[in-house]
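Honest question from a wet-lab person: if I give you the sequences of every part of a complex, can you actually get the arrangement of the whole thing, not just the pieces? Trying it with mine:
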Amino acid sequence: MSDTRAYARTLERLKKAGLRPTRQRLALGKLLFEGGHRHVTAEQLHSEAAKNQARVSLATVYNTLHQFTEAGLMREVVVEAGRSYFDTNIDDHHHFFHVDTGELQDISGSDVMVTAMPSMPMGTALDRVDVIIRVRSAA
Amino acid sequence: MSDTRAYARTLERLKKAGLRPTRQRLALGKLLFEGGHRHVTAEQLHSEAAKNQARVSLATVYNTLHQFTEAGLMREVVVEAGRSYFDTNIDDHHHFFHVDTGELQDISGSDVMVTAMPSMPMGTALDRVDVIIRVRSAA
DNA sequence: TCTTTAATTGGAAAAATTCTAAAGGGCTTG
DNA sequence: CAAGCCCTTTAGAATTTTTCCAATTAAAGA
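Yes, you can. This is the full assembly:
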């Protein structure tokens, strides 16, 4: 896919989400939404941007990831103390988390079924159910 | 319950776990395991210890929480970017997480059922399944 | 195009956690 | 019960992760 077309797609995406198509967002969006789904940390995305000649500060990477998340373009997945992953897959799904390697792996929503949901606490409404299956390297 | 008995219980717990019963561990253990189950952050426990005339450095609180967790006396629960909770309830159970308040609330293991488990990725073994039900304040 | 207005950016600061090297304290052995 | 081994604690600094806010930049209207 040509660079121009990649940017055009990202541009479209940003417009739909009501986000200004700035240079930084276009660059990060291109990295995130090109090719298949991804699990990235802010730090990873930041250094990846640097490698691609895109000068973007780490703070902007955080801002952008949060804005994309708020706009429903991504999901935030928290599995480890002091580290957030951002997932470009926004379909209903869950995760394997490799305790030893820190890797995340998607589990299609249909492969996990949560039954017997308890009732919500008073005055609250359901936001989302996260299932994280922690695995470690077999002995 | 008398202080003496409280310490005796914690002492027993530490011995079983193979942890030296130091002054600091006894003080923190007493705070953690007295009364009902608790969800605490390192910072919370640290200031609580200070209020109870127990001089314990923040680094030691972190060390102790991790040691207790490794010894199976507690569980670490990660729900928010940049913050870890430690849970004194080690029974099979899951959590409600209040997105707005940051509060955690236990769900008994029998109230949530995860079925249709996918097979583990190659070369991995199951460690644990975490279910976090995110709720927000009702409109 | 120019101006106004509001969103965006990134350096700096804050918050959370870990590291380090020196001092302290349990526990075993003699 | 003293000596010594070695695990623990500690304070401070370093590191890592995340957020704040003043300067900048983009969008909209004239």
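Two things worth pointing out. DSSP finds four helices and seven strands in chain A. The two ends of chain A are 43 Å apart (CA to CA).
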